[in-house]
Amino acid sequence: MKIFTLLQFIAFTPSKKCTEVKIYDQKYYLIQFTLKEYIEFSGVKTINQYQRNKFIKLFYSFQKTDPLISNFDDAHFQSILAFPYIDIQKQTNSWVVKLAISKLLYNYPYPFRTS
């Protein structure tokens, strides 16, 4: 189920404004949206505290995704995280999600992706 939720999230993001940042030689997109927007995109009709907490945990579970690339040899070690930053805060009457997603993952051409 984790891969489905990850692909569902990636399908949600093209409609959101993102900013590209670079951490050394790796590129990430910074994306911000309300939790309500994503919950509604997911098809959940009723947003209660239980549903909100479930989606917040879902986003934090993204950080447990294995590194996209890990290189390790006698002279070099590199690990690229898919989601190096996730922050979810209540602002006024909305929960706002701010996260960074690896450009490698964001642009990955999975087989059933529509352009």
Structure description:
The protein has 115 residues and is of the alpha+beta class. It has one domain (2-106). It is 31% helix and 34% strand. The strands form 2 sheets. It has a 4-stranded antiparallel β-sheet with strand order 1-2-6-5. A hairpin with a 4-residue loop joins strand 3 and strand 4. It is elongated and about 55 Å long.
Q: How are helices and strands ordered from N to C?
A: HEEHHEEEEH
Which blocks of ≥5 consecutive residues have pLDDT under 50? none
* Sheet with the most strands: spatial strand order: 1-2-6-5
- Helices, by number, come to 4
Compute the number of strand runs: 6
Number of domains: 1
Radius of gyration: 15 Å
- Percent of residues in helices comes to 25-40%
Percentage of residues in DSSP E strands = 25-35%
Major sheet size, sense and barrel closure: 4 strands, antiparallel
Mean pLDDT: 86
**Quaternary structure classification:** single chain
Structural class: alpha+beta
